[in-house]
Prior knowledge:
The protein is α/β, with parallel strands linked by helices. It is built from 13 helices and eleven strands. The protein has two domains: 126 residues, 3-Layer(aba) Sandwich (Rossmann fold), CATH 3.40.50.2000; 182 residues, Glycogen Phosphorylase B (Rossmann fold, 3-Layer(aba) Sandwich), CATH 3.40.50.
Amino acid sequence: MVLTLPIAEVLKREIPGTHLTFCVQHDTADLVRMSPFIDDILEVKERDLTTGFQQFSRILHARQFDAAIFAYPRPRLAFAAWLAGIQIRVGTGFRWYSFLFNRRISEHRSDARFHERDYNLHLLRPFGFPETNFPNPSISISETLRIDATTLLRNVGIPENTSFVILHPGSGGSAKEWSSTNFGLLGKEILRQYPNMMCLITGSKSETELVNRVRGMIGGKAVVIPRELSLPELAAIISLARIFVSNSTGPLHIAAAVRIPLLAFYPFQRECHPHRWGPLSAVQTILMPERNEACSDCLRGNCDQHDDMERINLELALQAFDRMMGNGSERNAVGSV
């Protein structure tokens, strides 16, 4: 979702006065509302629209949209737009239902030739916009959200104006993960080297056990927020952090969108590589296992033997963290890319 937001910025930049509605599921609607380039939100209960199809089509017809752009195409959504008589319907050219689009972009995202943001912005080709100056995702934190985030942090023991790092050890199953043991050891060493800093561990409700395990390893000034956060709350808390440390996962892209320095751990697997799914931040360090140049599987970007996240060792991560903190400390480490 975060990586679709640049569509809104480019449309607003290239066609001033455009009224832009994003169609999203309820779970992400409040996050999308934080984009300064989106005018309205249209919520659907299910991304595949298995229920409420006719009502949704009537809504589209009543709003008299000029164009529909499908960053995440689904058959019923495409059919609803066609049935509503939307004049311009942009979508992929490689699905069985692509005949419902009258502007087709023939790209296989599985080829991983471009970043997800760029694939999304390629959907604007029918409008003739120049493919330059692609913006990074951006979301705005309101003053109310920032105050509420400060209160949440204070309630778990992080006073206002205290420097803290966020460790997000899960990935929601979206990618290979640097282990919870590594995150625990990293957090413990960070707090030893930076005694004035605190550590917040975050994760989804399903990752509660993982979060508590990392917290237990770190001890001391490591804290968690004892309830699941909404996406706007999470974004606001991330915006107050010094550095966000994470595996490849959605909150990493939220951190990039609020312009917080990032330390991220990625596999070099082609489908999950940062070239395809990396965060878009001005200040970031991405660590991956080192390819074996003599291994044909490594060169194809699909090697279970060498693409092992445990090959990103702790010393390498600490060295990267020190650099991002401006320490300049140099450590001897292997496994860097």
